[in-house]
Write a structure and sequence with these properties.
This protein is mostly helical. Helix content is 71%, strand content 0%. Interacts with the iron-sulfur protein subunit within the SDH catalytic dimer.
Length: 134
C-alpha cells in the first residue's frame, strides 16, 4: 500500500464513531425531500390520523419556510427526521407514538406548550376512535 493511502486509512480510523444509532440516523435531509417522505410515510396511517398528520406537517413546513436562523432550521429538520424514523420503523404495525420527555417539555416556550395543549385536545377524539377500532 502506498504511503498516502496508508495515511488516509489511519486518519479514517481515528474519526469518532456516533454514540448511538439514533444519533447516526439523524442525518439532515433537505426540506423538500423530507416533506415528501413525511407525507409518504403517513399513507400507512388510518385515514383520520393521516389527514391530521398531513395537515400538521403542511402547516409546520409552511410556517417555518421563511426562517433564517440556522439553529432553528437544523433543529426543525432533525426533529422531523426523528419523527419520520419512528413512523417508518412502525410500518406494518399500528403506530402508537411515544411519550414526551420532561426535559423537552421544560425546554419549550409558553407558546409551544400552548400549541401542544391545543394539539392534545384536537387529537383526543381521533385517538379514542382509533384505539377502540383496533
Amino acid at each position: 500500500m502506498r504511503a498516502s493511502l496508508r495515511r488516509l486509512a489511519s486518519a479514517a480510523q481515528e474519526l469518532p464513531m456516533p454514540l448511538s444509532v439514533q444519533e447516526a440516523s439523524v442525518q439532515l435531509i433537505p426540506p423538500i425531500p423530507l416533506y415528501r417522505r413525511l407525507l409518504r410515510a403517513h399513507r400507512l396511517l388510518p385515514a383520520e390520523m393521516r389527514f391530521m398528520g398531513d395537515s400538521y406537517v403542511k402547516s409546520e413546513f409552511r410556517l417555518t419556510r421563511k426562517t433564517d436562523n440556522p439553529l432553528h432550521i437544523i433543529a426543525f429538520l432533525s426533529q422531523w427526521k426523528i419523527y419520520l424514523d419512528e413512523v417508518e420503523k412502525s410500518s406494518g404495525s399500528p403506530w402508537r407514538g411515544k411519550k414526551l420527555e420532561m426535559e423537552k417539555l421544560d425546554a419549550m416556550s409558553k407558546e409551544q406548550v400552548g400549541q401542544l395543549y391545543e394539539l392534545m385536545h384536537a387529537t383526543k377524539d381521533v385517538w379514542k376512535s382509533y384505539v377502540t377500532s383496533t
